[in-house]
Design a protein that fits this description.
- The strands form three sheets. Strands 5, 6, 8, 9, 10 and 11 form a six-stranded antiparallel sheet that branches. Strands 4-3-12-7 form a four-stranded antiparallel sheet, with no helix packed on it. Strands 1-2 form a two-stranded antiparallel sheet.
- A hairpin with a 2-residue loop joins strand 8 and strand 9.
- It is α+β, with helices and mostly antiparallel strands.
- It is built from four helices and twelve strands.
């Protein structure tokens, strides 16, 4: 058959010929049984069976619970935009003298650069406007050995929506001290 607009017309094939060909006949013209399409005789697609699918709406894609419908790129984009998930800042901090900590950032999805400043001996501040909301921010810091069996005890505290305080305590002295951060891991997680 000839082209009709942008869609090529399909040639009718009998049920018996269609079954013998495994459902679809590939060639210069794809031959399908139009009656089977109209009556729903084409099986539903699954992870193991080729067949017809229904496309999920963006809303159905966002819920992420439908195991029957297929999604589109627009649906995936909507799901990502709707469910950003946990935002995270992961860094290894090093600090010497009275300098601000230097961060080797391993991951930062907070939406801006975290700025570290020196506040006082063993006291440092991480700042990023509006990044640390109350009741949604989780802070994790790992201690490390600083020599002679002595350990650095880093403590993190949410100061407000814009800042986090980090204190470094030398375990044997029990006092805030500088130069205790040496590749010390810091994790800040912000939940939706």
């Amino acid at each position: 058959m000839a082209r009709q607009g942008k869609v090529e017309a399909y040639e009718y094939i009998a049920d018996a010929d269609l079954a013998a060909a495994g459902g679809l006949v590939k060639g210069p013209k794809t031959k399908i049984n139009i009656e089977n399409l109209a009556t729903g005789a084409v099986p539903d697609a699954s992870t193991t069976v080729k067949g017809k699918v229904e496309l999920a709406t963006n809303a159905e894609t966002v819920t992420g619970t439908d195991t029957v419908r297929a999604t589109t790129p627009a649906g995936v984009a909507a799901a990502i935009a709707n469910n950003r998930g946990v935002l995270e800042y992961v860094a290894l901090l090093t600090q010497t003298g009275t300098d601000a900590p230097v961060a080797t950032v391993l991951r930062n999805t907070l939406g801006g650069a975290v700025v570290w400043t020196y506040v006082g001996a063993g006291n440092y501040r991480a700042t990023l406007a509006g990044a640390f909301p109350s009741g949604k921010t989780v802070l994790i810091a790992t201690g490390n050995e600083i020599g002679g069996g002595n350990f650095n005890l880093p403590l993190l505290n949410r100061e407000g929506n814009d800042s986090i305080l980090l204190w470094t305590v030398q375990a044997d002295a029990g006092a805030l001290s500088d130069a205790l951060l040496s590749g010390t891991a810091i994790v800040i997680q912000v939940y939706p």
